[in-house]
Amino acid sequence: MDPEDCKTMVDVRAGVDEVDRQVVALLARRFGYMDAAARIKPDREAVRDEWRKADVLAKVDAAAEQLGVDRRLMARLYEDLIETSIAHEFEEFDRRRS
C-alpha cells in the first residue's frame, strides 16, 4: 500500500514495517560490499577513502533532489551510514588479517 492510500494507523505501521524489512535487506547487501572491500583493499590506510565518501554523498544529494526528498536529512543519514560502514570495514579488514 502506498502512503497516500493509508486510512488508519494500522495501515501506516504495516507500510513502515514492510519498508523497514526492505531497508534491512538492502543494508545487509551494502555491508556485504564493505566486507568485499575489506577483502580486496591492499592495506589498512586504503579503508578510509575521503574522495569516495564525498562522491557517495554527492550522488545521494543528487538522488534526493531528483526524488524531492529533504537533502539535509539524507546527508545526515548517509554521513552516519558511511561512517558506520567505514568502522565496519576496519573491523572486517583487521579480522581477516589477524
From TrEMBL:
SUPFAM superfamilies: Chorismate mutase II. Its EC number is 5.4.99.5. It is an enzyme of class 5 (isomerase). InterPro entries: Chorismate_II_sf (IPR036263), Chorismate_mutase-related (IPR051331), CM_dom_sf (IPR036979), CM_II_prokaryot (IPR002701), Isochorismate_pyruvate-lyase (IPR008241). GO terms for biological process: chorismate metabolic process; salicylic acid biosynthetic process. GO terms for molecular function: carbon-oxygen lyase activity; chorismate mutase activity. Keywords: Isomerase. Substrate binds at residues 13, 30, 41, 89. Residues 3-93 form the Chorismate mutase domain. This is chorismate mutase. It comes from Sphingomonas edaphi.
